[in-house]
Write a structure and sequence with these properties.
253 residues, seven-stranded parallel beta sheet, two-stranded parallel ribbon, alpha/beta, Rossmann fold
C-alpha cells in the first residue's frame, strides 16, 4: 500500500455480514483505512471490501478466530501496520449461543466467552498504545438486548447474555482507563434486528410476531439503524460521550 500514515485507521470485527457490514459501509470514506474481519466468511468480506473501496476508503481483509488470543492481538497489529496506527476499534464479532439453561454445558459457555469477552480484552490490550496516540480514539462494542431483558415471554439465552454482559463491563472499565487520554469508549445494545436476508437476527422467523409485541414501534430494527449509532459514537461529534450503553431497540424495556 501507499503511504497510509494519514489515514483514519478503523478495525471492524465481524464485518462480512449483518450489523458489521452495515457499520463498515457507514464508516467508509476517503481518508479511511479499514480492516474487514470474519471467522471464515471470505465471500462476505470481499463484498464488504468492494463497498468500502467504492466509498473511497482503503481496505484489507483479515480472517481468523478471535477466540485465539494470538490472533486477537495480531488483527490489531496488522491494522496498525497497514494504516499507520489504530483510531477506531469496533468490536462486533460474536455468535448467538441459543441454548436455554437446561441445555447448556461448560464448553458452550467457554466458547462464547472466548470470542466475545476474552477476544475483546485481547484486542483492547493490543490497541491501547495506538488509541492513546490517536487524535480522536474511539472504541465501540456491540452487545445485545438479552443482557437487559429477562422475562418468561421473551427468549432467554444465558450464555450469550453472560458473555455480552462481560463485554459491557469491560467496555465501561476500559472507558475509565482511557478517559485521561481522551478516548471515548461506548457500547451499543441492539434489539430485534432484521438481517440483510430479511430474516431475524438471533431469532427463528416463526418467533417474529410474538416478539414484536414487546417493541413499542411494532417493527424490527435494521442493521443500518444500529450502524448509524455506531458511526455517530465513532465520530467527532461524540467527543463528550463515554462509558455508556446505548440501546437501539425500538423502546423495549
Amino acid at each position: 500500500m501507499a503511504d497510509n500514515t494519514k489515514l483514519r485507521s478503523i478495525l471492524v470485527t465481524g464485518s462480512g455480514s449483518g450489523i458489521g457490514l452495515a457499520i463498515a459501509r457507514r464508516l467508509a470514506a476517503p481518508g479511511v483505512g479499514m480492516t474487514i474481519h470474519a471467522l471464515t466468511n471470505r465471500e462476505g468480506c470481499e463484498r464488504t471490501k468492494r463497498e468500502v473501496e467504492a466509498a473511497g476508503a482503503e481496505a484489507q481483509i483479515v480472517l481468523g478466530d478471535l477466540a485465539d488470543e494470538a490472533f486477537a492481538r495480531e488483527i490489531v497489529d496488522r491494522t496498525a501496520e497497514a494504516f499507520g496506527g489504530l483510531d477506531v476499534l469496533v468490536a462486533n464479532a460474536g455468535f448467538p449461543e441459543l441454548r436455554i439453561w437446561e441445555e447448556l454445558d461448560r464448553e458452550a459457555l467457554e466458547n462464547v466467552h472466548k470470542v466475545v469477552t476474552l477476544g475483546f480484552w485481547e484486542m483492547a490490550e493490543a490497541a491501547m498504545p495506538h488509541l492513546k496516540k490517536a487524535k480522536d480514539g474511539r472504541v465501540v462494542t456491540i452487545s445485545t438486548l438479552n443482557v437487559h431483558v429477562h422475562r418468561h415471554t421473551y427468549p432467554i439465552y444465558p450464555a450469550s447474555a453472560a458473555a455480552k454482559a462481560g463485554l459491557e463491563a469491560l467496555t465501561k472499565t476500559l472507558a475509565m482507563h482511557l478517559s485521561p487520554h481522551g478516548v471515548c469508549v461506548n457500547c451499543v445494545a441492539p434489539g430485534i434486528i432484521e438481517k440483510d436476508s430479511d430474516t431475524i437476527q438471533f431469532y427463528d422467523p416463526k418467533e417474529y410476531e410474538p416478539l414484536l409485541t414487546h417493541v413499542p414501534f411494532g417493527r424490527l430494527g435494521t442493521t443500518d439503524e444500529v450502524a448509524a449509532m455506531v458511526t455517530f459514537l465513532a465520530g467527532p461529534d461524540a467527543s463528550y460521550i463515554t462509558n455508556q450503553v446505548i440501546h437501539v431497540n425500538g423502546g423495549i424495556c
